[in-house]
Design a protein that fits this description.
The chain has 361 residues and is mainly alpha-helical. The chain contains 14 helices and 2 strands; from the N terminus they run H-H-H-H-H-E-E-H-H-H-H-H-H-H-H-H.
Length: 361
């Protein structure tokens, strides 16, 4: 919205600053952050009044959760989505189709997560929305967004998969790219959802991944930098740096209240939306494989669940004491802050590896 003020820069030279992507990205970070700080306390109190007993805790989960997490309200993702959405609408160029496509996935997945959280809280059980219905909704939103992104793209690149470490390698998947893009968005969404099990565990890796995509979006959208780094240029993708900045600001603001011991959980409202947004960003910027590296922690958590289920069904034995992986370490006696901080360290390392793909060609 504020971007349009730059049209009056000839009359008021100072307004030219709104043309700069870096300035607007910084503005989005601060707007989302301040929104969380200002609205967060009131929202948490409101959620406590409405939910009373807080988020239902799994009885088959780690025993300590029944004591330490009982009564903590969920659906804190509302704070993230509102802050991120307001910051994006305020600072981004709203003529960008990519902005609206990514917002479609983020807010659509957020609505699915909200419905899931609402059912859990009102019915006082951990089942929530039926899995098939949840997946159907995710596929619907991501399918619409993927088709939109393909139509916004240029030539064969729109339906191609870029392979990191190879400067000219594009695998044209044709219309098979559509289901692939849906898989990336849906998979990223559910992976973040599985990771969100301890105070602060998911939000920091999401913030780290979004920070990486601030840079990736900016570079991919700039023809000069893309040519220098020998990465594939996606015209218009640079505007997504503003969206990424909004995610980072909202994540920092939420972490203030989600740091151990958490005052609020993001719930599926936040985790499904944030994961979906990362998947959509990867699809637009043609960095789907890099997302698997940068978000390797989410992949690891998901694989632990797949391995656990497959092993139990095939052999009747469990590989881990409990899945996802963070619960395995809880069962081994690791303190929650130890698990969370060590997983954050892993996320930072993977982010550095992912960033290295921009230059190693």
């Amino acid at each position: 919205m504020l971007y349009f003020l730059s049209e009056f820069s000839e009359q008021f030279g100072a307004l030219n600053v709104f043309r700069y992507l870096t300035f607007r990205t910084g503005g989005a970070v601060m707007t989302a952050l301040l929104f969380a700080f200002l609205v967060g306390p009131s929202l948490i109190q409101w959620l406590k009044r409405k939910q009373r007993e807080g988020q239902p805790i799994r009885e088959d989960g780690p025993e300590g959760h029944l004591l330490t997490k009982k009564g903590t309200p969920t659906m804190g993702g509302i704070m993230i989505l509102l802050g991120m959405g307001i910051a994006t609408l305020l600072w981004a160029d709203l003529t960008s189709g990519y902005i609206w496509a990514v917002l479609l996935v983020t807010l659509g997945y957020g609505a699915i997560g909200f419905a899931d959280d609402f059912l859990k809280v009102t019915k006082r059980n951990t089942k929530g929305l039926p899995g098939k219905l949840k997946l159907l909704g995710q596929v619907g939103f991501s399918g619409a967004a993927a088709l939109w992104i393909i139509l916004l793209g240029e030539g064969d690149q729109a339906t191609s998969l870029a392979v990191p470490f190879f400067k000219d390698l594009l695998v044209d998947m044709g219309w098979l790219y559509l289901p692939f893009a849906i898989f990336v968005m849906t998979g990223a969404s559910n992976s973040v959802n599985l990771t969100d099990g301890l105070d602060g565990l998911a939000i920091v890796p999401v913030m780290i991944a979004a920070s990486v995509f601030v840079l990736i979006s900016y570079l991919v959208g700039n023809a000069v930098f893309a040519n220098y780094l020998q990465i594939h240029h996606v015209p218009g993708a640079g505007e997504l740096a503003v969206f990424c900045g909004a995610v980072v600001g909202a994540a920092i603001g939420f972490l203030w209240f989600n740091a151990p011991p958490a005052q609020v959980f993001m719930g599926d409202t936040g985790s499904l939306a944030l994961g979906g947004s990362l998947g959509a960003l990867a699809v637009v910027t043609k960095h789907e494989i890099v997302l698997a590296i940068v978000g390797g922690l989410f992949v690891l958590e998901t694989v632990s669940v797949i391995v656990q289920v497959a092993s139990f069904k095939l052999t009747g034995k469990r590989v881990f004491r409990m899945a996802p992986l963070h619960h395995h370490f809880e069962k081994k006696g690791w303190a929650e802050p130890t698990i969370v901080i060590r997983f954050w360290i892993i996320a930072v390392i993977l982010a550095i590896v992912g960033l290295s793909t921009l230059k190693l060609r």
